[in-house]
Write the structure tokens for this entry.
Amino acid sequence: MRTLYSSAQIAERVRELGDELARVYAGRPLTVVGVLHGSVVLVADLIRAMPIPHQIAFVRASSYRGETTTGTNLQTSLEGLPDVAGRDVLLIDDIFDTGRTLSALAASINALGPASLRTAVLLWKVDRREVAATPDYYGFRIPDEFVIGYGLDYNGNYRNLPEIAVMEPGDL
Ligand code: IMP
Ligand code: MG
């Protein structure tokens, strides 16, 4: 496995994003909504880099896939999401790949009448986009390679790796 971003590089970028988001949402009724499970590490670090009052919540998404490709069988659930009507929602995932996950979740949450909805991801795989939307905030733009760590998994493993690493064919 090859390191793409070290934990120090990620921490620095997350601090910058936190500063920016704290300015954007200062004085607003903000709910940070993470997508389970991939966003948990980013959410945990990012909210501590945002010194403004806000609430957090989590929603679910899974695309049925056992290997390193994103499946088309996307399932989402807003179960457990508190009332976001009239609130600003910042929807957070680990990575924007085809964009289908965040687009689907954004459409469902928008139907609940938030004051605004924006998306933030750590990684944006720019060459793979299959939807009109792009992430509103992102940490790094990356090429089309399969990455793990900092919340990102391969078959459920490696989410706890403190860095972002590229899985190469020989690693699989
Ligand atoms: P999208 O719907 O195609 O944008 O895919 C987003 C989801 O696919 C993310 O939440 C990840 O769970 C997963 N995913 C996409 N690319 C990668 C990767 O390189 N490593 C690990 N998971 C990935
Ligand atoms: Mg995932």
